[in-house]
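Hi V.,

You were right to ask for the full record rather than a summary. Here it is.
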Amino acid sequence: MGSTTDNQSSRLLTGARQTMMSWSKVVESYENIPEIFKSAFEMELGAEGTFPYTVFAPAIAAFGTKTTEKLLCEANDTIYVWENAGGKVSLSAYPLETITDLEVGSILLFSWITIGGLTKAGTAAASTIEYNTTSRRYYAHFINLLRPPPIKTDARQQSAEWAKFDHVGAENYKFMNYAHKSLAEGEKVSHTLWQPKITKPIVKLGWHTFQRTLALTHLLILTDKELILIQDDARSAEKRGERDGGKWRYIALEHIQSVSLQEQAEDLLTLSLTLTPGGRQVDSIFAASQKPEIAQLQEKLKKLIG
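Predicted structure:
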C-alpha cells in the first residue's frame, strides 16, 4: 500500500517538476547561465562587471511542435537573443534605436514576444521568444523598453480615450478590452479601424455552408506615438465564433517609412507599412468596403510621420 502511494507521489512530483521546467527564469549571474550559452555570452559581453538583465526561455511544446531554448538579455542599449538550435548557438543583437516593431502574443498558457528590426550585423530580422504564460512578468522589462513611457493622467482622460473603442465593444467585447489594455498611459487615440473576420463561402451541403477564412479579426489603432495592430491568431482554435487569446503588434511612428494601399482579388485591400531601418513590411488585409476609412487613416498617418 505504501509503495503504491509513493509511486503516485513520485509521478505527481515528476509532473510538477516538468511543468516548472517550462517556466522562464531570470538569470542573476554569469555562473547561472545555462552551460550551452556561457561561451557565446562571454564572447559578446564578457563575464565581469555588472551583470545585465537576462532571462532564460526553455524549450516548450505547443501546437504540435517544440520551440528552441533562448537567452534574452538587455545591455549596452541593445537586446541580445541567443538561440540554441540542436546544440548550435546563434546570436541576433538588436540596438534599441533600430528595433522597428514588437509583437506580444498569448494563447492560454503559450505566450511569445517577437522583436523585429535591424541587427548589429546590418540585417533586417525578427526573433521570437516563446514562453509559458506564467512567466509573463519576466518579459515586462523588454516590452517597456520598446513601448512609449507612461505619462500620468487622470481617470477622466483615460476614460475619454477608452470611449473611442465603444463601437468595437458593440461587436466584440474581447477586442474592446484588448484595445483598452494596449494603450500606454497618456497615449491619445487618433483613429481606429475595425475589421471583423472576412470569409468566403466555398460550398453548401444541406443547411450548412462551408467558409474559407480570408482574414482573421483585427483592429488597427493609430495613436500620437505608435500604430497598434491587435489580431486573432490562426493557431488558436475557434469556438462559437471566438478564438482564445490574440497578439498585439506595436510600431513606433518614427519607424514607419511609408504607407500604401493595394487592391487585391476577392474584394480585398492590403494596407502595407514599410519600416525603417531595414525595410521590413507589415501587411493588414481589409474588406474593400473599408476603403474610405483606410484613406482617412492613411492621411492621418502620413501627417504624423512627415
